[in-house]
From TrEMBL:
It comes from Craterilacuibacter sinensis. The keyword Lyase applies. Gene3D superfamilies: Aspartate Aminotransferase, domain 1, Type I PLP-dependent aspartate aminotransferase-like (Major domain). This is Low-specificity L-threonine aldolase. Homotetramer. GO terms for cellular component: cytosol.
């Protein structure tokens, strides 16, 4: 059976153009700086993200941790949202790798009050205090919410006033740009460094980008080696990354439209609660009425060839991507509607 997999945009398979590019990739030893395909990807990514230089890294998690390690000294404090990926989903790596202290700010799915960030910046030279080494923001947030540009601009202004750098966890920054109707550079200019995943909605099989100033990236290149991320003939996995940036960034609006169509169908079903205003990118979140049996719904979806994750903390998430089309989302809505309204 051909599964329709809507658990995440990380499940995306490489496109035929990506497989072709991998097959034909010219490669060399990238630790020697000899891989022309990796270099091409890094140059392209830097230009698209509006930074001087970029570095190809194995994962988004790696890129974020490499950024913390390169920006900070051990014992520095990093100010970031209490619901961000670095706090929740990176295995406590900040304590192990960069050796930094994470100072959280209340965050509503990525949106933090800039005044609360300002309050946490260490000003003065009290010998008791850690140094504020970095501020991290996330856009789009992993909840699928896009942070408004005004909030990012205000945060960047506060950071600059205090001489503190800003790192953007932009795992889905191209999705954020589509939602905001702006160029991705209009988002990244509010951060000194940015991490962006090639392997989510952009469908590359492996890899992420860390971009920043030339000096920062030179230091990050050395730290990437320290972390075990010096990859040899990496052109075979960089080649699909080039296709991801060239061809896949321009089609993300389709995924957003499909997510929107699915959300509108689901919102109309009795027994499902869904806030349409929260559908910003390719993710649809909804809650099921307590009377609906989750096991039964999951079985109905599986029987229809649909792979979905069960609800977590009462919320179910469906994610669209290039392998999900308008007919597919209509079918998902039909299966859910039939189960929820069909007396189970
Ligand atoms: C997925 C994700 C990451 C990590 O990316 P991996 O490639 O899975 O390691 C980091 N930040 C955010 C916001 C993400 O959604």
């Amino acid at each position: 059976m051909q599964w329709l997999d809507v658990r995440s945009d990380t499940v995306t398979q490489p496109t035929p153009a990506m497989r072709e590019a991998m097959f034909h990739a010219v490669v060399g030893d990238d630790v020697y700086g000899d891989d022309p395909t990796v270099s091409e990807l890094e140059t392209l990514a830097a230009a698209m993200l509006g930074k001087e230089a970029a570095l190809f890294v194995p994962t988004g998690n790696f890129g974020n941790q490499l950024s913390l390690l390169t920006h900070c000294q051990r014992g520095d404090e990093v100010i970031l949202g209490d619901d961000c990926h670095i706090v929740w989903h990176e295995t406590g790596g900040a304590a192990v790798i960069a050796g930094v202290q994470l100072r959280t700010v209340a965050s509503d799915r990525g949106v933090m009050d800039p005044a609360e960030i300002a309050r946490r910046i260490r000003v003065g030279s009290d010998i008791h205090w850690p140094k504020t080494g970095l501020i991290c923001v996330e856009n789009a947030h992993s909840s699928g919410r896009v942070v408004p540009l005004a909030v990012m601009a205000e945060t960047a202004a506060i950071a600059r006033r205090h001489g503190v750098p800003v790192h953007l966890d932009g795992a889905r920054v191209f999705n954020a740009a589509v939602h905001l109707g702006c160029d991705v550079k209009d988002i990244t200019r509010h951060a000194d460094t940015v991490m962006c995943c090639l392997s989510k909605g952009l469908a590359s099989p492996v890899g992420s980008i860390l971009a920043g100033s030339a000096g920062f990236i030179a230091r990050a290149r050395r730290n990437r080696k320290l972390m075990g991320g010096g990859m040899r003939q990496a052109g075979v996995i960089a080649a699909p990354g080039i296709v991801a940036l060239r061809e896949m960034t321009g089609r993300l609006a389709e995924d957003h439209a499909n997510a929107r169509a699915l959300a509108e169908r689901l919102a109309a079903i009795d027994g499902i609660s869904l806030n349409l205003d929260d559908v910003h990118i390719n993710m649809v979140w909804f809650a099921l009425a307590p009377s609906i049996k989750v096991d039964g719904l999951m079985a109905a979806l599986a029987a229809a060839g649909i792979k979905a994750n069960p609800p977590e903390d009462g919320l179910m998430r469906i994610v669209t991507h290039w392998q999900v089309n308008a007919a597919d989302v209509a079918r998902i809505a039909d299966v859910i509607a039939a189960y929820v309204t069909g007396g189970q």
